[in-house]
Amino acid sequence: MAGRFAPRPAVTRTTVRGGEAAVPASRPAPGPAPGTASAPGATTVGRERTYVPPGPLDLGLVLGPLRRGPGDPTFRTAPDGSVWRATRTPAGPGTLRVRAKGTAVHAAAWGRGAEWLLEQLPAMLGDLDDPAAFEPRHRLVAASHRRRAGLRLTRTGLVLENLIPSILEQKVTTDEAYRAWRLLVRKYGEPAPGPCPDRMHVMPDARTWAMIPSWEWHRAGVDDKRASTILRAVRVARRMEEAASMEPGAAMARLELIPGIGPWTSAETIQRSNGAPDAITVGDLHLPRIVGYALAGDRDADDAVMLELLAPYAGQRHRAARFILLGGQVPPRRTPKMPRWDIGRL
């Protein structure tokens, strides 16, 4: 790609932990392929908008955290370099396609939520973020920062679409959580509007989440504790969505009023919905050891050590953690992987 959208390094499993989606280099878009689908009554003509970012922007880095696994029915990348998102906006379901070309991002949207998505496009692409506020203070962070100049923090303005998959990720492997999200969205969501890639779905609305029977949670591998937490959250969906317009600390406190939502889940949500640069994830199984090893050679760092190491990045600790994860320096594995428990087979 030309202009601000430079080629990126190859994506590895380690960099994926830093929230990077592999987006092919931009090239002319073909006509609708046989594998595309539209919701009933949808038109292939969508609303459009062009956005010119104020500096370097990497779509894979900015939008990557919104992808919940390679089979996420709400997120796709296409061979022409475009990124597709199917989402439930305050105005209704919508599909958004963004594609970088030259120094601009071209976007098209379909569905009742199309206008809302295009209005929110700059914020979603990090326009409200301030990368210049970050100052690397470690060699590894500086190197990662230099290589990933296009990293900006997304701000979707949507809480539930980030909160629910974060709850699903509590205390299980990411593969298990991604499977549950994929199965539930495909079964209870609705086909995404517009000429989107096949099998894209918009996540269910709050009422539909609340009506999912207990055995379907079980079949998706979701235990009663996580299912109950989601049910408590969707019953106060309006109050949850209000957190998107709050300061990050207050927003996290609002989410944590729900039993079953703690600092880990609230941080993972607010990082995406509010674009919070300091919302560092605590209580994670891997992050403290990765940060400890990358910055101090400590393979056994806990949250307290991680927070101490990240203290020089106060106000920017989440951004610092992302650069550390993208740097790819992780401690060698000394313990078995977290076991998988498929409760759907019990």
UniProtKB/TrEMBL annotation:
Domain of life: Bacteria
Lineage of the organism: Bacteria, Bacillati, Actinomycetota, Actinomycetes, Kitasatosporales
Transport among keywords: no
A single MF term (Gene Ontology): alkylated DNA binding
Annotated transmembrane regions: none
A biological process from GO: DNA alkylation repair
Ranges of biased composition (kind: Low complexity): 34-45
Presence of keyword DNA damage: yes
Full protein name: 3-methyladenine DNA glycosylase
Keywords from the named record: DNA damage, DNA repair
Region feature Disordered, mapped onto this chain: 1-53
GO cellular component terms given for this protein: cytoplasm; protein-DNA complex
Gene3D superfamilies associated with the record: Hypothetical protein, domain 2 (1.10.340.30)
